[in-house]
Design brief:
Blueprint lengths: L5 E4 L3 E5 L5 E6 L2 E4 L4 E4 L3 H18 L6 E4 L4 E5 L2 E2 L2 E8 L2 H7 L6 E11 L8 E2 L1 H6 L5 H23 L3 E15 L2 E7 L7 E5 L9 H4 L5 H12 L18
Antiparallel strand pairs: 1-2, 2-3, 3-7, 4-5, 6-7, 8-12, 9-10, 9-12, 10-11, 12-13, 12-14
Helix pairs in contact: 1-6
The protein binds thymidine-5'-phosphate (TMP).
Thymidine-5'-phosphate binds next to helix 2, strand 12 and strand 14.
Length: 254
């Protein structure tokens, strides 16, 4: 079989040309980076878990009317997605102060925010994804005002849904990062949710203990990183059937 053409390799995922035009295979690696590549490591089984977790969350969001790039999971580490033109803006939604907002504004981690706060960053590794204002997004043409309105409305709906869903399994959705893309269908363009939603891109704290169950365990050397990702998958009811042993299962073939 012809080897698939690799389109892009990012820090945690690889994209390959999909089987049909307009599709892409998204492969989840175990590689982890933090602080824009300054810290590197591996979280065993992370790719398998994030593939499942992101599949699960994108499916639930799709069912409630949020358009996403997700088509279907192919195997342990790969999912088929629609090809979209990624909007070069990372959207961060915060419910509780943590991470960069705590540092930037001197708010103690864990302080509930007066309301959900949406921030935008310019998606550019060389510049360390700098925080930007709406003004920059529209002035530089990264998204039109209409696209940005749509992105904001979708982000808030996603936050409401995911906050409730995670609360139901004893996890607080402290903050998370979303990416959106443009999808063309018969001359029509739609904004859809893209990339992934996983413990790599969310902060999730146990509701009763405030224990961190996300990539901060890796960023801050807190230990038990794999276990935290597994616990999130377990609470979502999607740990591979035979448990963590499955995580080292067969590699992707196509
Ligand atoms: P921050 O507090 O470092 O700005 O991160 C806010 C949220 O966004 C946190 O849940 C982690 C996520 N995030 C990413 O997914 N990718 C990134 O590059 C950064 C900086 C944050």
């Amino acid at each position: 079989m012809a080897r698939r053409r690799q389109i892009y390799e990012g820090k945690a995922k690889v994209l390959f040309e999909g089987p049909e035009p307009g599709t892409i295979v998204q492969y989840f690696k175990d590689d982890a980076t933090a602080f824009n590549n300054k810290k590197k490591g591996t979280i065993t089984g992370k790719g398998v878990l994030n593939n499942r977790i992101s599949e699960f969350l994108m499916m639930r969001l799709g069912e409630m009317g949020v358009p996403t790039h997700f088509l279907r999971r192919l195997n342990m580490r790969e999912q088929l997605i629609r090809q979209v033109e990624i909007v070069p803006v990372e959207v961060i939604i915060r419910n509780v102060a943590a991470g960069s907002i705590s540092k930037r504004l001197g708010i103690e981690e864990g302080t509930p925010l007066p309301r959900s706060i949406v921030e935008y960053c310019y998606k550019n590794d060389e510049l360390d994804d700098p925080l930007i204002a709406e003004e920059h997004v529209t002035a530089f043409g990264w998204a039109t005002p209409q696209e940005l309105d749509e992105i904001l409305a979708l982000s808030l709906r996603i936050n409401d849904y995911l906050s409730g869903m995670f609360y139901g399994i004893g996890l607080k959705l402290v903050d998370f990062k979303l990416e959106f893309g443009r999808l063309w269908e018969n001359e029509q363009m739609r904004i859809v949710l893209a990339d992934e939603i996983s413990p790599d891109s969310c902060r999730l704290w146990d509701v009763s203990t405030n224990e961190k169950m996300d990539k901060d365990r890796f960023r801050r050397d807190l230990g038990s990183v794999e276990e935290a990702y597994q616990e999130v998958a377990r609470r979502l009811g999607i740990l591979p059937e035979s448990g963590p042993a499955d995580l080292k299962g067969p590699e992707a073939v196509q």
